[in-house]
Amino acid sequence: MALYSEKVMDHFTHPRNVGEIENADGVGQVGNAKCGDIMKIYLKIDNDVITDVKFNTFGCGSAIASSSMATEMIKGKPVSQALELTNKAVVEALDGLPAYKLHCSVLAEEAVKSALKDYYDKNNIAYDHSLFPNCEDCGYCEIKKEK
Amino acid sequence: MALYSEKVMDHFTHPRNVGEIENADGVGQVGNAKCGDIMKIYLKIDNDVITDVKFNTFGCGSAIASSSMATEMIKGKPVSQALELTNKAVVEALDGLPAYKLHCSVLAEEAVKSALKDYYDKNNIAYDHSLFPNCEDCGYCEIKKEK
Amino acid sequence: MQIYADNAATTKMSRTAIEAMLPYMETYFGNPSSLHSVGQAAAEALQKARESVAAALGADPREITFTSGGSEADNQAIVSAGNLGAKKGKKHIISTAFEHHAVLHTLKKMESQGFEVTLLPVHENGIVTAEEVAAAIRPDTCLVTIMFANNEIGSIQPIEAISRVCHEKGVLFHTDAVQAAGHLPINVKEQEIDMLSLSAHKFHGPKGVGVLYARRGIALSNIIEGGAQERGKRAGTENIPGIVGMAAALHEACTHMTENAAHMTALRDKLIAGLEKIPHGALNGDRANRLPGNINFCFEGIEGESLLLLLDQKGICASSGSACTSGSLEPSHVLLAIGRPHEVAHGSLRLSLCEWNTEAEVDYMLQEIPKVVDYLRSMSPVWKDLTSGKKKFML
Amino acid sequence: MQIYADNAATTKMSRTAIEAMLPYMETYFGNPSSLHSVGQAAAEALQKARESVAAALGADPREITFTSGGSEADNQAIVSAGNLGAKKGKKHIISTAFEHHAVLHTLKKMESQGFEVTLLPVHENGIVTAEEVAAAIRPDTCLVTIMFANNEIGSIQPIEAISRVCHEKGVLFHTDAVQAAGHLPINVKEQEIDMLSLSAHKFHGPKGVGVLYARRGIALSNIIEGGAQERGKRAGTENIPGIVGMAAALHEACTHMTENAAHMTALRDKLIAGLEKIPHGALNGDRANRLPGNINFCFEGIEGESLLLLLDQKGICASSGSACTSGSLEPSHVLLAIGRPHEVAHGSLRLSLCEWNTEAEVDYMLQEIPKVVDYLRSMSPVWKDLTSGKKKFML
Ligand SMILES: Cc1ncc(COP(=O)(O)O)c(C=O)c1O
Ligand SMILES: Cc1ncc(COP(=O)(O)O)c(C=O)c1O
User: C391 to chain D nearest CA, in Å?
Assistant: First the structure.
């Protein structure tokens, strides 16, 4: 019962896909520094397949690990499949997160979606808007502040 | 800072003058079992001098030690001098008592006085009544009960 | 010979408990709130201890709050239940006249805050019945708090029957199990206990650490405010060595409970049988429903403190409900509660054994105690009045 | 290399403290309330520890109440002063915005009970002035409670000047000296401190034990009700090993205070000078009026938890006021109180030294910390925005 699972620590200390992609086909950024977490994801997409993905994250260990894991999970996948990435899947792939860190996985899901939305927007591809909630919709920051 | 001084322990474990005197010239008993202390003192008096003294005590260690010390302090003394015995003198002779045990020394003083009063009464000797307070005057039991 | 027969006051720590603590004093000294590895090693120890204590009580780890001892646990249980009750307009609490002061004085504080407290009288055998509890429950009762076993006279209460009547009427049930934990079988789920207090130093664990078990769903109120330790319900850097030592001691006590109890019960009953030969004495507390290690007698005509001190001179460490031991003139409220008159209550003797006491020690005590009682009676004016017929024997 | 630089969170116990405790765990295990010799040996140890702690603070032994830690002491001090104030119709309390939660959350509770609380703002250097305290005192002020030194940023408050203005206006003054005791000179009489809290595990003593000093004449209210321990002001069987260990540790800390402080101050200043070379970072807390062992920086563009975890990988145990370390999104209230914006407050690093840290450790930290900061900045979108000019640097 260390703070984080070995998987989380592995992805935190050796994060995959760190960096930026110049002229990315989709870029998404979610979170804000005030809340302590910002994730930015860059996608390279060829023929509706994510051929490359990079991230930059400002945040805690589980935020970095969630970003790393999320990028691994969508790399090489068709966009349609990446769109189905859930925070739950990220958490499971990481062998769990402490309850009060679950929002990091939510952020990772949102960052991916935000980058995909950017790709759709840039390429004038029609999409179901309800698939792309805003950061604000997560409500996590608000909930915590009420407490 | 043991509970009791060595003097108290000595007089408690090896009490002097334990016993009764048949046909005593003065007998005094103070305290009550409800409060946890009863002292009874027997005096043999010849020519106004206390030639023998014995006590019986129901009570705690410091009650027994106070009785023992008080009897030692008046043995062989003229009645007039015995009358001057104070609880303070008993406490000092015992090298002190814990604050909440001071009433034991008061009881010892009273037991001696009560026996002397009995001697005066039996022999129709006139005396200053104010010298002989009643057990009730001590007020200790009442004070404690109020708390 | 030095005989320690005051295990109800406190126990000698076991090697198991000490050995369990030392690494957390010497090496793994971190603060469990710290993120680094030194802190996380402490956090892990804390969690393991919580799981171990929970298992010993049949509870869930999340239902365990570590406190600084039995008193704090009792205080927090009662204040919490009171606050929950007050929210529903229920401000009546039921307890007994012979609880520990940690309970009684907390109830006094609750009274000053507008609660009404019913202290049930106790039978001569030191037991309260479930029927009496049931009869005292009112629509505005929010808590019944009754000790598992009494610390002075060792009587064991019918906890399961009491908890059942509480739950039939929807009332929370707390039990001060400070004397029971590690000595009597406890399973909070089977016995339907909502809240339970225990203290580590009563079962060879360290001093200054205890547990409040509270069933899930019972929101605790803080006694100590501050950091978010113990799920925010008990602030203060956790006493990891103490908690780990407690868990180890409780585990050991529960593992050996049956054999320990058999050993102690045999010694206890030999002591009781032997001391009963002293005339004008009487056993306090129920003979059967009794802590395995508890012996408590009143001896007429003598006072407890002098008895204790003389026994100490002979190497016997015992205790008394005598007023003189506490600096008050009032003798033990427990002995008064079971109907002993003041005069007799002053002359009480409690021997409380643990699994390390031996038959040789019992024999020695049975040889010495009657002598000391005799000696004190020989100088007691009360005894003289009794034997001369001036006063009537009560026992 | 394993470097422990989180001594403000908790310290490693000293051999002195452990050796002092062991006999009371192994041999002299009695309950000080017991009359027999085993109990009286414990009572004697308790009294000696009380005298030793009193001497270390310039207090009278009767003014020392042993508690389960700093949090309990803080709680009891504030509740007691509040109750005394309420009796005179004075229900206003002054404190600061950067107190420990043991104080702030107790003040919240007092507010819910009809008290009014003024939290003084804190200057950028982490210091409150006596003039500001004086200006806030009202006729109905019953207590000023201000910490001796801050646990996060190490700033030392002008305690004597503050206590003087309190007493000029007849107001009680309490100080949370949990970070100061054993590290800074304390004399409650000379410094006119009415009440003071400390916690043993901050100066190489055991966890789960602390002290509330209260000047004679200040009637304490119980936080824990029950037995008559601690002159009736703190119930519960006394944690003798813990109390004895605390007294030994405090004595040792006070004996070597000057040399320890000199050693730690030198290391501290070297660390500060070295870490100041990291661009866009800033020291938190006053440079001069500062605990000898405290170093606290904010580094722009990074978040504290990830910094800590990476440092831990390199064997450096440090701490952060980052929100992520506590499971809340709000960063340290202390850093916000001294005016750090949220964004910057998230990226804080606290190193807190003790006398056992070495210059080699400092050199290692100065070698590794900048690397880790650089690495995290290299993957930080915030840092990119700052360096690209999209956002303005705050530090
Ligand atoms: C300034 C301050 N006050 C109070 C406390 C609380 O002390 P404890 O955790 O020992 O209860 C601490 C440390 O945790 C502290 O640093
Ligand atoms: C029945 C009972 N309840 C509560 C307590 C209080 O426990 P502690 O002294 O560890 O706070 C004790 C023992 O002292 C006890 O025997």
Answer: 30
